[in-house]
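During the no-cost extension, the postdoctoral fellow (Dr. R.K.) reprocessed legacy sequence entries with the updated structure-token encoder. One reprocessed record is reproduced below for audit purposes.
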Amino acid sequence: MDTSTKEQTTKVYMKARERDLLFGIVLGISSIALCIYAHKISTDAIRIMDAQYFTAPGFFLLAIGIGLILMSIYLVIHSIKRGATLGWLLPKRLIARFREDKASQTILVFFYLYLYMVVFWDTIMFTKIRIPFWLNTMVFMNLVMFTFRVTKPKNIILISIITSFSVFFVFKYLIGVPLP
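Re-encoded structure tokens follow.
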């Protein structure tokens, strides 16, 4: 491997470690919040139903939260050992990183997901306009696939139509679960 390829590989590897560090921290904080919520559910159930702590509804969530905390600790330690820092989150570096990475595509996809799950789910917010599940899903899939230029436009439209109608058909008619 030549020097420039090795440097690029090292740079990509380091970016992944830095993202792992940030994700590990966010996962740890979120998992702590999950544990607090699970404990509250359990104590409320104990108070209301005279249940035991390990049979209360929050106990399983607490176990999951503890597992996630342990995984986040491992991820943070592993990332730091590999040289990851949070220095890339400083404003100048972050802006440069957004420009060189495909961050704009990621942000755009999260925006699409927000539209899909919040704005157009069941009814459009602040209106009584109802969007069918199959249409909402088809539009979402089209937007994501066009953003990443997955294939030819004709194929993208065909894939999204087939997938959204298949999911709708399977859930509504075969499984019997109504979709919004």
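The longest helix spans residues 3-49. The radius of gyration is 22 Å. The remaining legacy entries will be reprocessed before the final report is submitted.
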